[in-house]
Amino acid sequence: xxxxxxxxxxxSGVLMFASVAVFAQQTITAKPEDTEExxxxxxxxxxxxxxxxxxxDAIVLFDGANLxxxxxxxxxxxxxxxxxxxxxxxxxxxxxxxxxxxRDYQLHIEWxxxxxxxxxxxxxxxxxxxxxxxxPGDAGYELQVLDSYHNTTYVNGQAGSIYKQSxxxxxxxxxxxxxxxxxxxxxAPRFDASGTLxxxxxxxxxxxxVLVQNHxxxxxxxxxxxxxxYKQYDRAPxxxxxxxxxxxxxxxxxxxxxxxx
Length: 261
Known about the structure:
The chain is mainly β. Helix content is 7%, strand content 26%. The protein has one helix at 11-29; strands spanning 59-62, 70-72, 82-83, 87-88, 96-98, 105-112, 127-130, 142-145, 179-187, 190-191, 197-199, 202-207, 210-217, 239-240, 251-259. β3 and β4 form a beta hairpin. The protein is globular, with a radius of gyration of 25 Å.
């Protein structure tokens, strides 16, 4: 290759041909093995079945058996929502949250708006999934639950939104009475020893199998009034909201989480 470029050319041409010669030499000497990685070997996880069973490394938060994984968000007493094959909000009992605290995770949860739902806007099957419930006096980080099938409200408050921060990319809501699903990847914020934010929270959400939040960077807690801000925490429970609107309470089922390294 080098002999082929030894003829009169302008300076820029020499540089161009020289770079071609180097590339050719690298191509000849490189081997496929140079870019192969063999360790660490990913651990084996059996995938969930097509009937909705969770993957083998999931922590099952609710499968219709009991509420052992949940407590009252107010006083940590046993959760008092209505549990059978499905988990139904008990508004008088208030919010519930997981006994365990999590940092980064993958979450699957299914929810259903009652078929005979009444009301409009935010008064129509309102609830929320707080991806990090950081304390009784804190707002947390809310993924909105609401009937958004032909129901008009502010777009950063409809189903699939990160409440008051990010509207969903699209609206894939099903009719009231039909089961809907969220699949969430949550990356918690990080703080230094002084409480200063080092890296923000990120969330990716699929609603009914459709991408509605694409690695969205949160601005802080999801406040009802005012601008969001961050408050230091390390690990936090996942909370389900007993919203005080007048509509019929919604139900949940098939809730599981996978902790991420």
